[in-house]
Automatic annotation (TrEMBL):
Aldehyde dehydrogenase domain ranges (all copies): 41-499
Transmembrane segments: none
Full protein name: Aldehyde dehydrogenase
Molecular function per GO: oxidoreductase activity, acting on the aldehyde or oxo group of donors, NAD or NADP as acceptor
Amino acid sequence: MPHDEAPAARGHQDWLGEADALIPRLPTRHRVAGADADGSGSAFPVVSPRDGRVVALVADGGEKEVDLAVAAARRAFDSGPWPRMSPVERGRVLLRIADLVEEHRSELALTVTLENGKPITESYGVELRALAGTFRWYGQLADKLTDESPHTGPGALALVTREPSGVVGAVVPWNFPLTLAAWKVAPALAAGCAVVLKPSELTPLSALSLGRIADEAGLPPGVLNVVAGGGPTAGRALGTHPDVDVIAFTGSTAVGRHFLRYAADSNLKRVWLELGGKSPNIVLPDAPDLATAAATAAWGIFFNQGEMCTAPSRLLVHASVADEVTDAVVARAGTLRVGDPLDPATEMGALAGAARVAAVQDHVRRGADAGARLRAGGSPRHVVPGGAYFDPTVLDRVTPDMALAREEIFGPVLSVLTFDTLDEAVALANDTEYGLAAGLWTSDLSTAHTVARRLRAGTVWVNCYEEGDLTVPFGGYKQSGHGRDKSIHALEKYTELKTTWIQL
């Protein structure tokens, strides 16, 4: 399969043909200690939300499979070469992983689209770019970290060093299966840890492929293991395992609570959580360009079918410009091309499955029953027979007490609320149990700074949304979790601080 062509260079029929050729070759076995592993022999189906067909039967992991993977990781960390390699050597392996990701870019992107339903253009241009870029960034960072030597009196020498934490259990969701895996695996490997990666049971295929690529790149056996399986089985086994030192989890707040309990009931392992969001996007009347603000609001909620923890699902608009901004978002929703994710012309693909469609429709119905006005969408879209598609949806006249304004929908549904004063806007924005991200549109520099400081969110975008790169941390406040992915700060999750005091 070619790896150097952008998706648009191939047509719909080309991608359909490549999908048919790839499906029989998809990985279906766990990756443990550098080799494929069958486990107990049971399997679960991976259903493509594109058309509802089973694309693979994947080995189902539980306590036995997690035990084997953790034991392999423990050996690799306790007695293997990886933690003892120089940072330069570890960095070279991460760079080789990035190179191999680029070589297999089309195949990996197609795998993501088949199991996840997002458009092939986004799998290729967003997901795979993030995967390769993350491994490359941490590969380049690995030998540039320094320890500390605090000033002491003349009779002593103090050293503060960072050491790898040990075995990391990384549990990632289905909405960005490779991006979020990379955000956890790459810094953990750069720090010298060994990892057991458990992907969502909805999207295990791309993670299993990544495990094979990492071994091909020269990662010592057992340093990265991938176990497919369900949350109550494989996830719980990983969370309660006494030989796991750190859990790094991205997913729902409800499941995050489980991992904290697992840690309390086992070895008090550190648990780092990146959880849900109900992010506000505030548009003030002095926004530099209301048309751009509206277009960005529409893009933000409909990108990745709205299945994004940072999605700007609450549009807070000043009453004086609410009609103008809302009308523009509604117009964009009406022209957005919902289609087959294997068609490069598609702008919004399939939701993660039929259950997601039903849940999103229920949210919309309850919102309308509570008094919100449906301005666009609100119904499933029939695109590919058997597929899971939903219209881009906008509701206004939403009030702060409605579920539409409080619950994470995780779908292409925008709730519009209005305000009259800046203080009211800030109060509305912070009136949520979450605190992952926020947006603000204003031409006033002082307003930008003061409001950003008042917003209880891990990231605040001003006159943009969902921008940034690997140099900045990502994570939330409140029930959106704690700890940070991306940037040098991610290494703090996978290292221990040691003080050495030498009396001279």
